[in-house]
């Protein structure tokens, strides 16, 4: 039997023990480029098959300049993108925008800065704060992940004592081997933060092409930026939208609902998610909004019936929030996606409770 790596399942094994907040997996197994309009491309990166995700990059080419949205995880992948951009155009990349602070969207910044020294890297002010806090420590945090995998291999068990299946053991063994080269690369990363922050929407003309930069509200993080091309009707959503299973391990669920409504109001017929393939209508955005608002509403109903969150524990209230009605709508009959959905849903309830505790 040939071994088929399964990044999604490995992510779940990792997430059980690591509680890492920056590894959404679309299960993407190869690099893929899609042309959205003349001079507008989406690059879906291969998720590193070892617990590392890599966000999508969007390349917007104007008559004078190139605007890039997100720079992915591995600098080597960012350099591959830069080589590709140079095949598309001889115009320089003058703007990079980071949609949020998770490092699977910005560790490639340095590669762009090296290639285009006049580059401006844009992020929401809150995103820059978080990038400054978490960007430079990326490598040592990933080392903890490697150590955790090593420990699972040594003991044959997960951190909570469950014995690993033969398939999981094989995946962990292979992942450890692959992580070595990734870690080597991460050790050489000099983190490059944003150089220009924004708090209010603005637009830039890169040469017969207008690029709008928007903050539609908090959601996945405190500074989620959205890029919108009004003429081409393309919206680039970052991890506010992750397909096929939303990435809700942190964030602001109540506000996220409104932010997705704002996103839905943009006149767009192509939406680039932070991970996964391009969406051609707003059905999925509405579904994610429904999931979030259902979790928030059920939690509020329970807290109203009992006591405010500050007087309770998650264990006392989590049973009152039932999201199984959404499982089939997100995961269909796919077993791995179902496991991923259930893992995300359990975390969503936790995030909703934590948000309620801030009242
Ligand atoms: Zn991401």
What does this protein look like?
The chain is an alpha/beta fold. The chain is 43% helix and 18% strand. The protein contains 11 helices and 12 strands. The protein has helices at 7-18, 75-88, 109-115, 125-134, 138-155, 166-187, 253-265, 283-305, 314-317, 324-331, 335-357, and strands spanning 32-37, 40-44, 57-61, 66-69, 93-97, 120-124, 196-198, 202-205, 210-215, 225-229, 234-242, 270-275. It has a 7-stranded mixed β-sheet with strand order 1-2-3-4-5-6-7. Helix 7 links the parallel strand 11 (234-242) and strand 12. The longest helix is centred in the C-terminal third of the chain and has 23 residues, at 283-305. It is globular and about 60 Å long. The protein starts with 6 loop residues before the first helix and ends with a helix. Mean pLDDT is 90; it is low at 1-9 and 15-23. The structure holds zinc ion. Zinc ion binds at residues 24, 53, 55, 102, 104-105, 239, 274-275.
